UniProtKB/TrEMBL annotation:
The keyword Signal applies. This is DUF1090 domain-containing protein. Residues 1-19 form the signal peptide. The keyword Signal applies. Keywords: Signal. It comes from the Bacteria.
Amino acid sequence: MKRVSMFVIAAVLAAPAFAADDLCTVNLQKLDNAVAAKATLAEPLKSQVEEAKKEATQAQAAGDLKACGTHAERALQLLDAPGDDGSGATS
């Protein structure tokens, strides 16, 4: 019974680490898809999105999955916000 309990505890403690990795990876994939869907991005939006994506990939490479997810989410929010080029989350 102790082995089962230890296994369950280990699985529960490891779950947030996998969730952070998944969130980082999923947000980066969503970001790639969103950038590809919006062929023309006006400045300064384009620079802001590129900078946030760069920060996300650097954080991922450094193993900081929380920061990776945060930066990628910020870039997605920038893309979804109404902008000067008429784009926005109106779909």
